[in-house]
Amino acid sequence: MNRNKIALLFLGLLLLKSSVFAQIKKDAFAVTDDGYRLWLKYDPIADVGVKKEYQKFTQFIAAPSANPVVKSATDEVQQGLSGLLGKVVPVVLSAKGQSGGIVLTLVTDKSQDFANKEGYSIETVQGNIRVSSESEVGLLYGSFALLRHMQTLQSLSAITLRSSPKVRYRMLNHWDNHDGTIERGYAGSSLWKWYELPERIDPRYRDYARANASLGINGSVLNNVNASARFMSAEYIEKVAAIANVFRPYGIKVYLSVYFAAPKTLGGLGTSDPLNPQVQAWWAAKVKEIYQYIPDFGGFLVKANSEGEPGPQDYGRTHADGANMLAAAFKPYDGVVIWRAFVYKSDPKGDRFKAAYEEFTPLDGQFDEKVIVQVKNGPIDFQPREPFSPLFGNMPKTPLGMEFQLTQEYLGFATHAVYEAPIFKECLDADTYVNGKGSTVARIVDGTLHGYARTAMAGVANTGSVRNWTGHPLAQANWYAFGRLTWDHQLSSEQIAREWVALTLTKDKKANTQIVNMMLHSRDIYVDYNTPLGLSRPWTGVHFAPEPWQNRSSRPDWTAVYYHKADSVGLGFDRTANGSNALAQYRPEVQRQWSNPDSCPLPYLLWFHHVSWDKKLSTGQTLWHEVCSRLYAGADSVLWMQQQWDQVKAHINPETFADVEARLRTQHKEAIWWRNAWVLYLQSFARQPIPPKFKKPEQTLEQVIKSVDVYLLR
Ligand code: BDP
């Protein structure tokens, strides 16, 4: 062999070696992963056995029609299979007696007995995988379920899946403004590029729709509840219609938040009084105009007479008058009016906790059938932990929709890892006892308790323009969990987390268990360093920095001291009969759980009681010790989360790993900030030393206050 040949051989070996390495690297983490693909990754399946089995059923995709929604389904299955199995599977109109394919089947004879039209079933029939539904959109949901099944490497041979959504309107609420900002958004700017619309269609609109449809979400309110009248203008309706066109093939309807005073500010009328015939005619014409552009428009979401927004009460009318006036405009159409119950007046002597109940329960039975009243999960405002809103169960003649918040307004923005499914589940599973035991919030929301047909669940979105959609990579799980729960609120937090981790982060079982465990603890950890034992912090401001000392504002319920009521005696808000008596808004069975400070579960203690610093709690520690223990344990547990994450490094895409790792470091720093602020501030009331087993904060209270002041500088 001459020298040239040897050199060539050497070069060849070198190339082979480097390509083998490239292969190994590639196999482990298929592509660099910036998180854009969410849970729809469709990375190549490495398991040879699974792949072989899947080959048997993926020779073709048969779909009954060229309907755009069905086309979305076949496109997705095709895209999924191309990623998972690396092959292009042909789409045909009929299976024509062949086996070995995926067959989408519209069933018209109702033989399948689905709970509703959107339901689907998946099973093997004559050697094919048959996805059936009574509707096109059901086939789309079934296709996504099939892909989820395959992405999690489950067997196809004996597949039997059957599912129907429990709630009818499953929606995201975007608090996005026309200028591209997002109220309480921490993942970049708005996804909607209003200045480019309707001409330019950002490809991201479609990916947004795919992600939502994969979970069963079927509605999207595009703009902020603190709405601009601009969205009612012809110019914006056209822009909205362009987005609706992209969403339609994914079964998603668009909705708009409305500015109640639009007849005046946009329409040039002298009033926006809902009982004024001109105002009524203005809205009727506006709704008609919208339907000309968007024939399947979803409806309106309304924040009225809340936090300075205009509303019917400006004219001495009720929320029902306002809602019914809008509902009348929707009579010829399919749309609905979703009226928010998030209201609280400035009342120096009142308890904000009680406000929504006091304003809305007298109106039960007065709302038009097209109205859904949307209630936040808790009585105050998306706190890290709240008892369920006492409105649930107390308006049996009005469909009540659930409003959860996915964006982490009070949960550390995009630098704290907080898995929210336990927050949602805690509320949904809570028993209101309104019709005896088992009258859970979920059964009120899904309509089974009071027999509502129009049922709704909304989540204030955490999406934005950053590449990975949610800022914190783990926050994608909150979008995912919300969507899955709108479809089926009986799924457990753990089940959903397992699924999401397998789809999104790793196929390794041990790593999955470890990450899921960390996710399941993350909310309690956050509560411990942020609002332990039932503290809350909804005062006005940025909702990020600790400032329990904040005592000045235009109204008392926009101060911190209003909520925690720390004084030399103790801590917490007395909502028993001796105090504001908010507890009376719940059924006796619920009151009994919370009214006695000796037996009230500790997570709710300070929500309902002003507890003295020296009171011995069920843990055997005094309140002061318990508060310190929780604050310290919470902050320390973030270190534990860091360790847990570090241990799964080998199984996570390096980009995602590093991102989460860095955010956990920030979270730890900020958890200490919160802990120090609370401990030092509360100590000035408790007048007791910090228990010796805890390291004293390095800073003084003045220094912490200064650091917060600097943070809040404009
Ligand atoms: C509060 C937010 C505020 C929202 C309001 C609402 O701080 O930005 O406008 O809720 O839900 O949590 O209307």
Main beta sheet = 8 strands, parallel, barrel
Which fold does the CATH topology of the largest domain refer to?
TIM Barrel
Indicate the structural class.
Answer: alpha/beta
Helix content: 25-40%
For the record, the count of structural domains works out to 3
In CATH terms, the superfamily of the largest domain is: Glycosidases
Classify the beta-strand content into a percent band.
5-15%
Question: What sort of overall outline do the alpha carbons produce when their principal axes are compared?
Answer: globular
Q: What's the level 1 CATH class of the largest domain?
A: Alpha Beta
Number of helices: 21
User: What do the pLDDT scores average to?
Assistant: 95
Keywords: Carbohydrate metabolism, Glycosidase, Hydrolase, Polysaccharide degradation, Signal, Xylan degradation
Family: Belongs to the glycosyl hydrolase 67 family.
Signal peptide: 1-22
Domain Glycosyl hydrolase family 67 catalytic: 150-469
List keywords for this structure.
single chain; 714 residues; alpha/beta; Chitobiase, domain 2; TIM Barrel; Alpha-d-glucuronidase, C-terminal Domain; 21 helices; 39% helix; globular; binds beta-D-glucopyranuronic acid; Glyco_hydro_67_cat; hydrolase; Glyco_hydro_67_C
Explain this structure:
Belongs to the glycosyl hydrolase 67 family. The chain is an alpha/beta fold and 714 residues long. The chain folds into three domains: 48-163, Chitobiase, domain 2 (2-Layer Sandwich), CATH 3.30.379.10; 169-504, Glycosidases (TIM Barrel), CATH 3.20.20.80; 527-573 and 610-713, Alpha-d-glucuronidase, C-terminal Domain. Helices cover 39% and strands 10% of the residues. It has helices spanning 3-28, 48-56, 68-85, 136-151, 203-215, 234-247, 262-265, 277-293, 319-330, 352-360, 421-428, 441-445, 476-487, 493-504, 509-530, 561-564, 588-594, 605-608, 623-647, 654-686, 701-712, and strands at 61-62, 91-92, 102-106, 120-125, 128-133, 160-163, 169-173, 219-221, 253-258, 299-302, 336-340, 371-376, 400-405, 456-460, 570-571, 611-612. The strands form three sheets. It has an eight-stranded parallel barrel. It has a six-stranded mixed sheet with strand order 2-1-3-5-4-6. A two-stranded antiparallel ribbon has the order 15-16. Helix 19 (623-647) runs antiparallel to helix 20 (654-686). It is globular and about 80 Å long. The termini are far apart. Beta-D-glucopyranuronic acid is lined by residues 183-184, 225-226, 303, 307, 342, 381-382, 409.
